[in-house]
Protein 1
Amino acid sequence: MAESERGARVQRHAFVDRAFHWLSAGAVLVLMATALLPILGIEFAWVTIHWVAGIVLAILIAFHVVRASIWQRIGTVWVGLRDLREGWSALRSSAQAKVGGKYSLAQKAIHNAFAVVLLTAVATGALMLVKIDTPWWERDPYWLSDAAWAAIYVLHDLASLCLVTMVMLHIYFALRPEKLYLLRSMLRGWITRTEYEHYYDQSRWSAERTPGNQ
Amino acid sequence: MGWPRQMRYPRAPSARYNFEYKRISGYEAMELFRVSRNVWGQETVLGLSWDLLPIFFFAGVVIVVSHAAYCRLTAGKRK
């Protein structure tokens, strides 16, 4: 294969998906900073920033769910028996295994964990908006019973604590030397043809080749 | 004024357990929940205790360090 052919690029993430990823990441980091810094003793007016970032994240997630359901294949991130078998054999094998489809078991697992945790945080956070004054309504602290609010608070806090661990792991794995090509693909959209042929089973991820620097 | 602290500020079951634990062992057990009292004097849960934050943080640190160490130790085999 000619060197120019080897250097050709395979699109992994469209611009709209990369924009969703980085905007969501920004919103999550703002939410975590405004939630956790006051706990660590750094006091500032965090409530407005927190709920505005929460609404931005909710809109982004709604957009992603609609896009993934209609214009993409939602089964791409479904964990099947084959994923579990491949994950198990990759764990037992000492050699660097092929990923197989577009996403590995680990990538599907972290995506689905983020989905559960972020949906929990957003849903409970949306309910908690009832207890603060916004431009659209006045606060109503008695809308639900104390027991219901307790469950909502505990779920919201549990989701935020889980996010601390999950964001740490996500950033660590994104910065692993052998995974930097994936970080590049999330920044610029593409992986090289060589990386595609080396890491992926082309019968399971038939990627479009994109000429030039797209 | 003369009442013991736990009588003046009745707390959640975990806090009562903590009080007993501290009385017996001399150490303070970790609280799982933040609790308060509503306008009727009833105990209400305000959320999870922020004492749990270091646990989630260090869980992340342990996984990262363990994985990095595993990769370093098996680097030769994986090439």
Protein 2
Amino acid sequence: MNEQENDVFIRTVFSKYYQQAKFDIKRIDQREFGIGNVKKIDARHLSFATTEQFRNFLVSNPPRFVSHSAAYYQFPAETPIEKKGRIGADLIFDLDMHAEGKYDVYTRLDEMRDEVARLVEDFLISDFGISREDLLIAFSGNRGYHVHVRSEDYLSLGGEERKEIMNYIRAENLRIRDFFEWKEIGGSSKKTLKKLLGPKPTDGGYRGRLAKLVINKLNNSPSSLSKIFVDEEKRNFFISGIMEGNWSKTSLKLEELLERLEKLKPELAILSINADPAVTYDMSKLIRVPNSIHGETGFVAKIVGDLSSFEPLRHAVINGPPIKVEFVEAVPELEILNQTFGGFSAGQKAELPLGVALFFILKSSARKL
Amino acid sequence: MLGNAENVDLDFVAKYPFLKKAREFVADAEITDSLVEKAVAFILAALAGKLSEKMYADDFEKKEGIVVYAIARMILGAMRNRYVTNRFAVAYSKLARKRINSESEDGIAILLNEFNINMRDGKVSLPAYLKYTPRDPHYSLINRQVSSGWVAINEDERNRMIEEAIKKHLEAVPLLKNPPDFINRAIAELEKQMPRQEERTKKFVAKDDYPPCVTYLIDELKKHHNLPHQARWFLAVYLINIGLSDDEIVSLFSNSPDFSEKITRYQVEHARKKGYKVLSCASLVSAGLCRAACGISSPLAWRGKKR
């Protein structure tokens, strides 16, 4: 099959998918759309009045990529951007996994789920007070997740304010040392007694999160903090102090303690959030339409209902009758749709479920027979 | 009820004439030449940094003060000069701050309500906090206790937020199309008496080969936006390091709405004397001043890289 026939096949699969795809685009008539075939965005400034209009467009002329603006506009199709009349913009978080090689990332996608859960539960809901109804979580269709915050309260934030939120979530300039202070609690004229005051689990934000994390570590892997805490009595004594914000109930020195706490930062913050200034500042950016197909993988940028049970390579793969393909390069073993595929070698032929075949074709590792 | 506009009386409106409620007190006011003159003088005083607390003798003067404020807003709306508008906003919000600092709790509640700043039990809603606090380390969210969308702040910080809200309100002056004659005459008068913009900024030679972080700050200044402290410091040190003179740097900063030549000159001279080093790109990223991934490690490397 030649290049052109390959393309027709891909478009047919996409078109068929879009006939029944479920979209959840808030205020679709106020969004700008962008589509791409060669690049992710070849054309933008498109707009659709209704979901049906949008669907008809995708069915009759399916692009490899389709995205919509984080922003809401009075005139989404106007150019240049100043004429669009921005009303506000969703807050969008883009979590990406980095991995070497063409296929490595697809064996590790599950790792991202915990990060997304922490972002949603600890930061967006617990710290920021955003309600669950205003959140939309979607698989990105490739190596990460997008979290859309569609809350009226955050709509009007400017770029700098959005960046501050991003910095907070990434714990930029977090100084754990500042959480602690010595307080005199009496003693004699020769020797004063001091107590190390620090965060307790009921505190807000990073303070509470740090206290909870440390207690959790002490209970589950005490030696990761210090060998001292392998001793149950010492451990429980320290924990009983932290519960009240008193961190002195241990022989561990403050400096040693701080050194170990600093190492916990990746578990406190969400470091996989894309912090590229261009992404965090730019309110005119376009984001993949949830439940559209990602043109590099053929996976659906699936809207996630229950995060804890969501598996991208099971739930975001398009269904359809098996397809025969021939591999043009070697591909490692991968688990998709709860089955193991490969490894395949160049020249090898196989009959694969539609979504799996589509994936290898779009990754340019196989061609349709 | 606290913050209820029904409780707003003439005394209160005279103190804070930007309140929506102010219109009701001056709806039938007659605009005379003398009031227009006072409005022009009011703006000029703000531009010169010489706004001072007014004492009103009676209700008549209070109403007059509100009308003068309203005319000044119309002038700014018709003039559409960013420099004048922003400088007025800074000066006026600073004056208002003095009043806010001695305001009653009821009065504060009315002001918070005016700007939709949600507060309860010493905590402010996160979106309002982000909107009305400056982006400097003291207000950095990371150093705050943030819980369920609320941020704890003290009284002084609350007052600072109201000041910022007033400033933003004044900066966003609605455009006045087809202004009446008396406004056009006032603008002509104002322009005659104002220091000329060319004199303020002519000494700064714009070059096109600054890295994105520097270009952004220069553009912000040219739009007469206030820069946070750390941004000013970085920009000044950078310009010193690439060989600009004190005069050139001061003239650039003269675009700033809160510009004071004396203070700026002192700070630039001080920075030069101390021989401060330009922040590295890594520091700029953590200070939130980085604008693009240029692939260099110091803004000073930009010129070498580009050529």
